[in-house]
Write a structure and sequence with these properties.
Elements lengths: L5 H7 L6 E4 L2 E2 L10 H14 L2 H7 E3 L6 E3 H4 L5 H18 L5 H19 L3 H14 L5 E4 L21 E6 L2 E12 L6 E4 L14 E6 L5 E6 L22 E12 L3 E4 L5 H37 L7 H26 L2 E2 L5 E2 L2 H12 L2 H12 L2 H4 L3 H5 L1 H10 L8 H15 L2 H12 L4 H11 L2 H12 L4
């Protein structure tokens, strides 16, 4: 079976009955709920994008696991070095158009590697279960899954077993044929639009934390699974000019609750093997942060295009030195991040499971660097576009015939553009730099794939400082 089209995906949601809440009320129909429309559209557009002529050769790959053609960025286990380069290229290109590509391939791949480690250390056979799950996804249209990794953590100075009221997902019971889990996962991106949830550990654990070492997959409408979704940053009403990006793309994040959920044995991929929990975080820090370097480069491209267009509709273009310098600076920042994504791919090492893991020193250094530019880029957007992005009339004002003539006369810019075209360009800058979407962009940049502090932790852990000290001593003729 080939994978879904966007329309087939939308129809597939009618077959599910998940327990989803938005603004305190339970959602009756995920496919049509007005506060979930950007989420559903974002996922649907991902399927359709793979079928576009200019994208298909890169965005679709034949899986060596299932033999099916699948969306590369969402479902492919990355077992060829070339996968890293193609993924980086696609991620940058798509992120420059719609902020988020979706990185399911990374999630499935790092779990594949962790499960291999568990089987090698304990003689288990979780890999066959996981492979069966992957093949099932591939052969049933590649229905989307929600990635449940991040734990609430509670008091972050304490491990989960020492929390007074632990909230992390935990094995709380064992029954014939499976286990019972309880707890929560944070930041479930696009979760209400998924068919399945995939749960994995989030951090290093000790033997006392054994019951928190659990990984499994379940249908999203399994009894006891609940999602409390925050509305997407885009407008809740239909628009045609304002919020041109967030009215169509991005989506919700959810708090996912597991309320005494039964997990059948065939769906369990980790069950108490605490020693290997840290491995997933380490692999994630390599593979997913490579994508984030490319993703952030795509955001730079988006900012560059919006800034240059705003300058042009204002009648200035690239003729003004400070505008030219700021746009060039954003271009160079994007190329730096993308260069790190490619450099880390070139230095990648293959895990025994077959998964290729980019150089973690390069990706963490690159991501920390490009993350630090987001505030400056938002400042440049405001500076280049002008104060109007924060004070301009609304789309409804423009739609009022009695007001339109005054707005048209007052806000005309370059003679190359109509007033409406100028407003549309500035609405894009407003969406990026002066809206709820701005906060989401900041969150994506600063905390997605782990915080900047975790980038530093990985670099300090892996960098061979003693070797550099030895070289310095040799040069300085210090013999001890």
């Amino acid at each position: 079976m080939t994978f879904f089209t966007g329309e087939q995906y939308r129809k597939s949601l009618k077959e599910l009955s998940p327990e989803i809440y938005v603004r305190g009320e339970q959602v009756k129909d995920v496919a049509t709920h007005p506060l979930l429309r950007q989420t559903i559209n974002h996922i649907a557009s991902g399927y359709d994008l793979c079928l576009e002529t200019e994208m298909k050769n890169r965005a679709v790959v034949c899986s060596p696991i299932s033999g099916e053609d699948i969306p590369r960025l969402a479902f492919h286990i990355q077992q060829e070095k070339e996968d890293l380069f193609i993924k980086a290229e696609l991620t940058r290109e798509i992120s420059s158009q719609r902020i988020c590509t979706g990185c399911g391939s990374n999630m499935l791949s790092v779990t594949w590697a962790m499960i291999h480690d568990i089987d090698a250390a304990h003689g288990t056979d979780y890999s066959s279960r996981y492979k069966h799950f992957i093949i099932k996804l591939h052969k049933t249209g590649c229905p989307p899954f929600a990635w449940c990794m991040m734990d609430p953590k509670g008091d972050r100075s304490l491990p989960p077993s020492q929390q007074r009221h632990p909230a992390d997902v935990k094995i709380v019971g064992r029954k014939p044929g499976g286990i019972v889990v309880n707890g929560a996962k944070l930041h479930t991106t696009l979760g209400p639009g998924a068919h399945h949830v995939v749960v994995v550990p989030c951090r290093a654990l000790t033997e006392a934390d054994r019951d928190f070492a659990v990984s499994f997959a379940l249908p999203v409408d399994t009894k006891g699974i609940k999602m409390i979704a925050r509305p997407s940053p885009g407008p809740s009403r239909e628009v045609s000019m304002e919020s041109p990006l967030s009215s169509r793309f991005l989506g919700v994040e959810a708090l996912t609750i597991f309320d005494d959920v039964f997990v059948p044995e065939e769906n369990i991929f980790m069950c108490g093997e605490w020693e290997q929990a840290v491995n997933l975080s380490f692999y994630f820090a390599s593979l997913h942060r490579q994508s984030k370097c490319a993703c952030s480069a795509g955001h730079c491209d988006l900012f560059v295009g919006a800034a240059a267009l705003a300058a042009d509709v204002n009648g200035l273009g690239m003729n003004i030195a400070h505008i030219r310098d700021k746009i060039t600076e954003m271009i160079m920042d994007g190329e730096t991040g993308y260069g790190c994504a490619l450099g880390a791919s070139a230095n990648a090492q293959q895990h025994p499971s077959g998964v290729w893991l980019p150089d973690p020193l390069i990706v963490n250094s690159g991501l920390k660097t490009i993350r630090s530019t987001i505030g400056k880029h938002l400042e440049h957007l405001h500076d280049i576009a002008g104060g109007l992005v924060a004070t301009m009339p609304t789309e409804e004002d423009w739609g009022n015939p009695g007001l339109k003539k005054y707005i048209d006369r007052s806000l005309r810019g370059s003679e190359k553009y109509t007033t409406e075209e100028r407003l549309r360009a500035l609405y894009l800058v407003q969406d990026l730099a002066a809206s709820r979407t701005t906060g989401t962009l900041l969150g994506f940049t600063i905390n997605a794939a782990g915080s900047p502090a975790t980038n530093q932790v990985v670099v300090r852990r892996l960098y061979d400082l003693e070797k550099r000290i030895t070289y310095a001593k040799q040069i300085a003729s210090i013999l001890k």
